Amino acid sequence: MLEIAQSLLHGFSLALTPLYLYYALIGAILGTIVGVLPGLGPLGAMAILLSFTLKLDATGAMILFAGIYYGAMYGGSTTSILLNIPGEAASVVTCIDGYQMAQKGRAGAALTVSAVGSFIAGTISILGLMGVALFLADIALRFGPPEFFAIGVCGLALLVRLSEGSPLQAFIMILLGMALATVGVDFLTGIERFTFGIHELGQGIDFLPVAMGIFGIAEVLNTVEQREFIQSVRKVSLKELLPTRQEWRRSFPPMFRGSVLGFIIGLVPGPSPVIATFVSYISEKRLSSTPEEFGKGAIEGVAGPEAANNAAVGGAYVPLFALGIPFTPAMAIVLGTLMLHGLTPGPNLIKTKPDLFWAVIASMYIGNFMLLVLNLPLVNVFVSILKVPRNILLPIIVLICLIGVYTVNSSSLDLLMLAVFGYIGYALRGVGFPVAPLILAMVIGPMLETSLRQSLNITGGNLADMIFRPICLTMYSIVGVTFILPPVLRFFGRGHLPGRSGPGKNRLE
Q1: How confident is the model at residue 256 (pLDDT cuts 50, 70, 90)?
Q2: CA distance 28 to 207
Q3: Nearest residue to 80 (alpha-carbon basis) of 35, 30, 28
Q4: Smallest Cα–Cα separation from 216: which of 395, 338, 384, 437?
Q5: Which position has the higher pLDDT, 495 or 32?
Q6: DSSP 169-216
Q7: CA 80, CA 97: separation in Å to the nearest integer?
Q8: Using CA atoms in the order 115, 89, 235, 114, what is the torsion angle rounded to 10 degrees?
Q9: For a Cys-Cys bond, which of 80, 118, 159, 456 suits 310, CB 3.0-4.6 Å?
């Protein structure tokens, strides 16, 4: 514990330098703006800014993106409460009771409870991140290629089951992402793969234009289709921001429960902030002595979910730092950022780059405090951003994407890839295919391929030696249960009981 305290203090000494404080502040402001604007989301903002982080050092880039991710969770709740518009997917649940509170004249109380709950959840999740990540990093140092391959397979399998859309659609997207990751020169043999005679593809398909196309350009195209929402925004005065004593008493238990739930769910692959909010809302409704108030302005329905979505962000950083595997699309962008700076996330990163790890942890504390201070007094300023016409905002986003992609390699092929994957992302959304598994598979794909080839070399091609190692067997068992258990539960849920036969006897009446 003393060593952790000393490391954290060192992290604060780095994070409190003027430059990193500036990055944290910019990230918090950008994240809040992104959260307020419907459609773009933290993924789009992080993808658009990905190329610009090359001008920063790795620590600065991580601090900036952490601020954007946290800030988007804060900002999304503002429009959910005041306008019934979820600025971010994780804020959908907040609309249910937050907007009803605003209709009753308690918008200020809902905004304050949301901000304080997010701050508490962020603090708890950062404490969890410190402890769990360090624990996993110590264990992961004993992992070999077979274990990393098993963890990657397990993560993708869980992603298939938990992604929006059907598992088949998610599986197809994962295969497509892994196929894209194989384009280029094979790192072992030096032979070009799947370049189809295009010399420029020998360097591979860069993560940057793919991410910016799918999450940036595609979001712009999708937003163009939507009807512009114009609604007058009621201003919230500072004196309205103070909840009553009863509202505080009803809010604190859901905040702490949502923080724990959110952090745990953040450790699972998939859209964890969104899942965490729904789980928290359902839990609070079942635990409440007045469940009939939910949907009509129950403050617990704001406090719990808002805490849960922020805590899930901290939980999502654990597998990235400890294992080097992103379990959410946003973490895939963060992983891409580290790789662009020549760093490989995983257990060795915490040991070899402790300054980066502890500075990012400390900046999360600082960023959460900044967001608490910024969001409440400036709530009217942030909401007024919705008045910016789309015909001004969207071209600016496209221009930033074009400049960002071209300045990295000065390659016209990258611009073509940006356009192609922008259209692909837009088309996939149109037919209901999830795009997040594609990005995750594209990032994890090279690690899976490398681990598999190293494992086959180590074991002499003996698959049994790869599967029946303790950690590997545990991971593959989780994969088996993930795919076998749901059909079995559905089978028995329809009333199929052992020992009964006949079409008329297989259904419980």
Answers
A1: very high
A2: 25
A3: 35
A4: 395
A5: 32
A6: HHHHHHHHHHHHHT-EE-TTT--EES-TT-GGGGG---HHHHHHIIII
A7: 9
A8: -20
A9: 118
Residue 184's φ and ψ, nearest 5 degrees, are 125, -165
Instruction: Report yes or no on 504 lying in a domain.
Output: no
- Map tokens 């800030």 to a residue: 71
Q: Cα separation of 24 and 27, whole Å?
A: 5
85 is written with which tokens?
């518009």
Mean pLDDT of the chain: 79
Answer yes or no: is 498 within a domain.
no
Which pLDDT score, from 0 to 100, does residue 257 have? 92
Please check whether residue 361 is in contact with residue 122, taking contact to mean a CB–CB distance below 8 angstroms. Answer: no
Furthest CA-CA distance within the chain: 75
Residue 507 lies in a domain: no
Residue 158 tokens read as 């869980």
pLDDT tens digits, one per residue of 210-240 = 877 887 788 788 877 766 554 555 566 666 6
Lowest mean pLDDT among 34-43, 227-236, 270-279, 467-476: 227-236
Residue 499 forms part of a structural domain: no
What is the tens place of the pLDDT at every residue in 377-400? 776 676 676 667 777 777 887 887
pTM (predicted TM-score): 0.71
Q: At 507, is the pLDDT very low, low, confident or very high (cuts 50, 70, 90)?
A: very low
Is 72:35 a contact under the CB 8 Å cutoff?
A: yes
Please spell the DSSP secondary structure of 305-321, one letter per residue. Answer: HHHHHHHHHHHHHHHHH
Angle of CA points 218, 77, 272, to nearest 5°: 65
Count up the domains in the chain and report the number.
1
Concatenating the DSSP letter of every residue in 85-139 gives: --SSGGGHHHHHHHHHHHHTT-HHHHHHHHHHHHHHHHHHHHHHHHHHHHHHHHH
CB 43 within 8 A of CB 83: no
pLDDT (tens digit, 9 = 90+) per residue, 277-317? 888 888 888 888 888 888 888 888 888 888 888 888 888 88
What H or E segment, with its residue span, contains residue 165?
A: none
The helices-and-strands tally (H runs, E runs) of the chain is 22, 2
Q: What's the token pair of residue 467?
A: 């599967």
Residue 341: phi and psi, rounded to 5, are -95, 10
pLDDT higher for 130 or 388?
A: 130
> Which residues lie below 8 Å from residue 64, measured CB to CB, with a gap of 6+?
23, 24, 26, 27, 49, 53, 56
Token representation of residue 128: 């969890």
End-to-end CA distance of the chain: give it in Å, rounded: 58
Q: CA nearest 35: which of 66, 68, 70, 75?
A: 75
Residue pair 319/128 in contact (Cβ under 8 Å)? The answer is no
